Amino acid sequence: MIQEIEALLAKKIGFEPNIIGSQKIAKAVETRRLYCGLTDSQSYLRKLQTTPQELEELIENIVVPETWFFRDRKPFELLVNYVISEWLPKHKNSTLRLLSAPCSTGEEPYSIAIALMNAGLLPHKFRIDAVDISKKALHKAAEGIYGKNSFRGGELPQKERYFQPSGEGFQIGATVRQTVNFMHGNLLEPVFLKGNKYDVIFCRNLLIYLSELASTQLMEGLDCLLIPNGLIFVGAAESGKVPGDRFVSVRQPFTFAYRKTEQSGKNLTLPSVAPKQNLSFLTKPTFTTKVVQRDGKLEQPQLDSLKQAFSRTQRVGETREGLLSPANSKTNPLSTELIKSKIGSLQSPISQPPSPIPELQIARKLADAGKLEEAASAGKTFLGKNPTSAEAYLLLGEVYQATGDDRQAEQHFQKALYLQPDCYEALTHLALLKQNRGDFAGAALIKQRIKRLENSQNLG
């Protein structure tokens, strides 16, 4: 019955059961079955098939919001530069149209609004549609009340400008709330948002949970919604799912932004922003790379040799990740010379610290001793209690890689990057996996990303 329910979820919302985890789905099913007072899974499956409201309730139990204000700051820097340097001069009498999907509990669309307002864009000059499949998340987003967990990406130095104290934390101001239109819906529904057009789309950390078929369907839908030469932002682990025949990477580290190509095939670059313009409220981030220390090692290539190999970045696929337009283009990519403004700087996103947790240490020691099945079991148990641990996903990825299950390994490394985009070890493992299966272009993209991470640390 669980397999049939997983198939139903895959059909309705595109979720890949292997990525979400059968154990998590089974737990959610059991919770809802008991709540409905049904005696067995077969009865619950029939209810799911005939009651759309119950399917929504099950999805609510599976989807866990994981977001915060200004998560991964670089995309917001690029957005500000794009709007001020390119969009605004050409559309002085127009309204900037943006889509945030999935928007979860609202931190991302509100961050977009704050970024644009700080750049000098008046509230009536832009409109944000924010979409999610979870009604509970949308209800919280509409209320706009947030606790300290929503600010873990860094405290806003002028929080009082956008938030008012509330008994439960802080509430987003009415001026910001009025720029966001929250909508309930499924992005995989063909008619949903039909006829809408957007200049910028944020679709971060959804593709990672979808099957290949659903990912393709979603990107086709977003392609229709985005205007030619518009920008789309994806998550750190999702670059490989952006079709290269329709989108070209913007050459800015850690933005994971792509430009939709024109029908003619001509790809324009974003003009540079003059240093004298006071456009940005964010400063250069400091990336923290964590290397887990071990007494022993799994039987696989040494990370030191991988680091040396990856530093010799290949140019294969560079026009996708490294350049906005073909290598023979005479145009220049968008400059990131940004000036700190009166809102001040934000702290960089919190990386997972080296974990002193005994359960995870036990799992690591089991893996180092070659007891891979026991290590996997211990890692899964720990992850069930700590679903946002990048280190646990990294460990399980290494275990699956050592057992030869490259598919599961890649999924776990991607989840580690979802939680910690600058996780050096996850990047190196992913590059190795892609190279071993002959995906040299994909491996080259990750190698470029590793090189940029190394360069940013050296500059820092």
UniProtKB/TrEMBL annotation:
One term of GO molecular function: S-adenosylmethionine-dependent methyltransferase activity
Ranges for the TPR repeats: 390-423
GO biological process: methylation
Database matches in Pfam families: CheR (PF01739), TPR_19 (PF14559)
Span of the signal peptide: none
Keyword NADP on entry: no
Record's keyword annotation contains Membrane: no
Family annotation (SMART domains): MeTrc (SM00138), TPR (SM00028)
Residue span(s) of domain CheR-type methyltransferase: 1-263
UniProt keyword annotations, A-Z: Methyltransferase, S-adenosyl-L-methionine, TPR repeat, Transferase
CDD domains given in the database record: AdoMet_MTases
Protein name: Chemotaxis protein CheR
